[in-house]
Every structure is written in C-alpha cells, then in structure tokens.
Amino acid sequence: MSGQQLSDRPRSSLHPDDVYSILSPFGALVSLIEESAETSIATTDVVTIGRALYENAMAKVKELSEGSGPG
C-alpha cells in the first residue's frame, strides 16, 4: 500500500550530488566501526557518531524534500 502512495507523489528533484553528500559520511562510519574492532574506540562513541550522522542525513533529506534546499 505504501508503494502505491509513494508512486502518487511527485518526483523529487534530488540531485545525485545531494545523495552522495548525504550518504558518503556513512562510508566513513563503516571504516570507523572496522577500526574500532582493532583499536580502543569505544562502541558508545561509534554509536554516538553514527546517530549524529543519521540525524544530519535525515535533516538534509527533509530539507531537500521540502524544496528549501539550494537551487
């Protein structure tokens, strides 16, 4: 049902550069998680960083979806 609702919505003008800028920090997070297994980085620190990245990404997606982004 939700797929049908999404198809009724107008297409977003989300640019590939926007998608890249939203998702690229998560690659860094994956690297940090891999390193944390080999170093003394606390799991709670990795989770805190991951949560901040997620919240920032979602805020950017919301901003772009509302059309208040640049362009």
UniProtKB/TrEMBL annotation:
<protein>
    <submittedName>
        <fullName>Uncharacterized protein</fullName>
    </submittedName>
</protein>
